[in-house]
Amino acid sequence: MPSTDLSSILVPWYQREARDLPWRREGFGAWGTLVSEFMLQQTPVARVIPLLTAWLERWPTPADLADAAPADAVEQWANLGYPRRALWLHRAAVEIRDRHDGVVPRDVDALLALTGIGDYTARAVAVFAYGDRHPVVDTNTRRVLARAIESRAHPGVAHRRDLAVMASLLPEDAEAAAVMNAAVMELGQTVCTARSPRCSACPIRHRCAWVAAGSPETPDLRRRQAKYEGSDRQARGIALKALRDASPRAIPLDALLADWHDPSQRDRALASLFDDGLIVPDGELVSLPR
Roughly how many angstroms between the first and final C-alpha of the chain, as a whole number? Predict the structure, then answer.
């Protein structure tokens, strides 16, 4: 399947059908793109947008965030989940301020050297903020590639080979390549979904290997996320919320998760928060990192 076959269909489809999202608007900037990518990891778009807006109003540049306390970042993260991302984003902002004169770097290797940034985020910033030509592969992209190219219902374990496959589909023109990257992600998020793909609405259904094969069910090798209710993640979230809401902000360690149903799980959750640097000793009390 030549790259022009897909890009000639998906680029105009995306230009017609793409959702209006803040990070896709003209002039959004590299810092806004970086923050949005941190927030969007394993988090629905609808939850991200209001918190992203508030974040960028409070800290419109990396230096603004770097000058704030890490605790402020954790508090502002609110209920987005996976709060280590807030600390990583704060550390990345400090690195951008100190190493790059406050400007989000353009080079993929320089982006990869920042805290909390992996292959996907580095390339997303380089492509969507700066217009460079790189393959950008997220979970949605991998699902489209698995179905359209490899005739599998689900992607396998993430592999750098996915970058090579996506690179083969990109137009030579950098601007068109950026749109193609976004189009494949949009297709995976809105049409070629994990559980209920809308194949009848797919613009490339006549060129999809999976559809041509009769949409066979193939093994789903993705690791399943544990149920949130009653999990360590829920315990961690409750403890952090108590610290965000506390006045004064330092409280006794024994007050965190005092009524949690499983004492060993409580201890494990609190220990992991200490290990992640999300709570720190404050005299005889504990607090968010300062």
Answer: 54
